[in-house]
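In this supplementary section we document a worked example of the pipeline. Step one takes a protein sequence of length 284 as its only input; no multiple sequence alignment statistics are reported here. Step two produces a three-dimensional model, which step three serialises into structure tokens for compact storage. The input and output of this example are shown verbatim.
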Amino acid sequence: MKNFIAKQLNSGAVASIWNCDALECYSKWPSPTAIIVDGPYGVGGFPGDPKTVDTLPQWYAAHIAAWSAAAKPNTTLWFWGTELGWATVHPILLVNGWDYQEANVWDKGIGHIAGNINSKTIRKTPVVTEVCVRYTKKVLLPLHDGTAVPIKEWLRAEWKRTGLPLSKTNEACGVKNAATRKYFTADGLWYFPPADAMEKLSLYANQHGIETPNGTINTGLQMSGIFLPCTMQSDLRSATENLCTTIKSLKRLSTILSRLPQTLEMLCGIPLLDWLPWVSAALI
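The serialised model returned by step three reads:
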């Protein structure tokens, strides 16, 4: 029997189902855009599933390390489990560079109770839910001195290196105050500028940034490592189209981006139509 089964989809893409231990396959798979985890819950639900959540961190440790090593800046991870199982594994995900975004509860409804009632379970509140928790990959970018910082801190620091006040970001983007309120704020309301705003910021910085002692313009924003987390949308193709728009904008900026070639390679080399999810759980 082959280790995997491949099928041509109507879109022309190829979907594959691998029948082997996932730990042996991670190195053979392309970098994932989405990782869908539906492994052990710690309830003894199938052969190999621990009967309690106590050993779940050890079980998942090698898998989580592999996901982190292969993930891209826009990789989204969906972790399925019981509320206690997920809470037990959550610290391991954080340590490996995954940022918690949200927890979604699947209510299976009253019909799920009927098949799970016996003399033991009838004495407690029936469990009719599971959780699906979304994480995004934490991305760190290097400052001019090599210090790696989160994108929010990087963007603010790079603009300050131009010698321009933060208020000028609004002028650069052609907005009243959205840039200072959203793209350059230091609080929890921050989010990364869209591609067109990032391009305007980069061009403005190059044109108006102060000159350094060696006569070159201290533009800072010549390195525009755009990161757009992939969020759950009703139509994944819509997310793909948004990402395509971002990548096209990055390509237009290639002539002025003189720093962080590894960032460009990382972002411009994304296989845009590669929506094949990774199934994290090893098949026993």
